[in-house]
Amino acid sequence: MIASTTTQADELVNKVIDYYDVKSYGNWRNNIVVVADDTDKESDLSLQSNINSLAETIVAEKPFLNYEKILLDSYVQETS
C-alpha cells in the first residue's frame, strides 16, 4: 500500500481490516461477471475465444461461484 500521509495509511489499513471482518462476508463474494464482445475482425477472434475459455475454466474449477456472462453485442448499439 502506498500512502502519502499517516491518515491515508490508517484509512487503507482500516479498509483491509473491514474487508476481512466476518460481518463483510456475504453472497456478493461469490458473484463474478465476465464481459465479452463479439469479433468484428478475424484478428480479434482469439480475444473472444480466450475470454470464453477463461469463463468456462472458472466455472469448472469454482462451481460455487455465481457466474454471469455479458456479451456486448447482445445489446442494441446506440450513438449519442
Report on the structure:
With 80 residues, the chain is of the alpha+beta class. It is 40% helix and 15% strand. The chain has 2 helices and 2 strands, in the order αβαβ. The longest helix has 17 residues. The radius of gyration is 19 Å and the shape is extended.
Key traits:
extended, 40% helix, 80 residues, 2 strands, two-stranded parallel ribbon, 2 helices
Amount of beta strand = 15-25%
Morphology call:
extended
Low-confidence stretches: none
Overall average residue pLDDT: 83
Q: With helices defined by DSSP (H or I, 4 residues minimum), what is the helix count?
A: 2
Order of helices and strands: HEHE
Percentage of residues in helical conformation: 40-55%
The SS-based structural class is alpha+beta
- Biggest sheet overview: 2 strands, parallel
Give the secondary structure arrangement, pairings included:
Elements: H1 6-20, E1 31-36, H2 45-61, E2 66-71
Parallel strand pairs: 1-2
Please give a quick description of this structure:
With 80 residues, the protein is α+β, with helices and mostly antiparallel strands. It has helices at 6-20, 45-61, and strands at residues 31-36, 66-71.
